Structures are given as C-alpha cells and as structure tokens.
Amino acid sequence: MKVAADLGYRPNLHARTLSTGRTRIIGVVLAHLDNLFYPRFLQLLTERLQAEGMQLLLFVADGRQGNLLEQLLQYRVDGIVLAATTLHSELAKACAQAGIPVVLFNRVADTQDSGFHSVQTNQAEGARQLTRFLLDNDHRRIAYLAGSQDASTNQAREQGCRQALAEGRRRLFAYGEGDYRADRAQGVVRGWYVGDDGARRPVSDCPDAIVVADDQMALAVMDTLRHELGLQVPEQVSVVGFDDVPQAAWAAYQLTTYTQPLPEMIESVLQLLTAQLKAQSADAKRKPRGKAVVLTGQLQIRQSARQRSTTRPRR
Fold first, then answer.
1. Phi and psi dihedrals of 83, rounded to 5?
2. Which CATH number fits domain 123-259+300-310: 2.40.50.320, 3.40.50.980, 3.40.50.2300, 2.50.20.20?
3. Is the pTM for the entire model greater than 0.85?
4. Average pLDDT over the chain, rounded to an integer
C-alpha cells in the first residue's frame, strides 16, 4: 500500500468491472426534476449508495423509452430505481432479460411489473387522514386537486380522500387536475374562485378547503389564494398537501401535509436492491419475485389548515 501510494497508483474501476461483471452503478430514472420531493430523495439515496461503495447515475425519462432503454443497457447498470415514471412492458422485458434488478420508488407496481420490487408510503391512508382532519375541523366544501390521472400515487391519494368523505357522509365539492405542475394547479384554483367575468364567486360557491395531491402544487395554490385572489389561508380557505418537502415548513407556508418517511424508504430500496443482486449471484436462473414494501407516514399539522381552536368569524 505504501509503494502504491508513493507511485500514485489508483485502482482502475473499469478493469475491475471486467473481472467482477459488476459496475456498482445504480441507475435512477426520474420523469421530472422540478418536483420538490425528489432533490432530497436523490441526495439521501446518493449518500447511502456511496456508503456501500456504489454510485448513482441519473436518467431523465423524456417520453422516448427506446433511448432510455439503450442508455441503461449501454452503461451496464447493476440495478435500477424507477421513480415518478411508468415502467412499460418493453423496458420491463429488457431489464428482466439483462438480469437488472428494478425497484419501483413511490409508485405501485402493476401486473406487468410483478417481478419487480416496490417501495412506497401508504398513499391512500395518508390522504384519508388529511381529509379526515379537515372534516373534524368543520370544513364542509372540500375540493381535491389531483396530480396526473395515470399516476398510481395520485390514484391512491384520491381514493383516500374520497374514502374519508364517504365515511363522513360528504361529497367532493370540487375536482381539478394539476398534473403535478404548479402553473396548472394555479389555473384550476383560479377557476374555482373567479367567474368567467373576472369577478369573485360567492363564498358559498367556493371550496373552504383543498386537498392537494402533492406539496409542490399546494405551495403554488397558497400563493395564488393569498397574493392573487386576496383570500386568507387558513381563515377563509385551508390547504393541505402531501410529501412534506423542506419548503413546507418554511414560515411563509407552514403547510399541513403528510410526511413520507424518506430515510426509511431509501433504506428499503437499498435492501431490496442488494438482496436481489446477491440472489442473482447465487442463482442466475432464478426468476425474481416482486416484494411490495409499504411504509407508514405521519400527519404533519401546521398552520395552513384551520382548526376549531383557531377558527375566526368570516366576513
């Protein structure tokens, strides 16, 4: 080791790859980089992978699956963490044929993904608790602002919201789709509170609470309500989100939301990946059996949602 240090020798990782057949690179596939939930996810996952002697390689899915598939195979990644995007049958088949373990993060595996592991929070239960909290605090005109209709996360969260309303013998007052984009979410909310003539709608015709499918849209909604429409949050309109991104705790927002346990989720992702890699080394012909890990989050009550003790008379 001393001689190697004196000579400035550095191990060649590419040569090591040829001898071991492993690159120790984990590919992470994201659909959007502007979602506030994923920067911290990438940071924590990178730190854990590096602690285990592995590296993260980021791929952004732009809708052209053929290019993505070719890149994943060219880089010979040892495993794939698929986040916030859909694993289509072509990619699933290619990964299986190449023996690449896949863990789906923050999404539900469908029937085509049955051979892959998944890690997520109990999405439906989180949204049910948020909606139940609003009902328990005397909100009666509850709206749901959806993410993407085809996203499993949104489907589960919407299900939880509707379940809580049904349990409380209430109907959904208003519905809109924000597609997990701040600008679209703001447009939906404007339509709920402002008529075609540009005049504010009567209070009785507007939601008194909004369950938003994620924090990023919820923060944009709060800005629109306060700064464009002149409404008070939470005195006139309560807003709740989902994820508990760092910005949700900022003094300007104090967003009531549902915390996803990111450290525990990432630990589960790493355990599933390493277990599958070890299993492949022991028996390369063994067909993988998918395991679904569902973790429990926590309702995080802050100041964006009105509570009975803080309710003020309305004008």
1. -125, 135
2. 3.40.50.2300
3. yes
4. 86
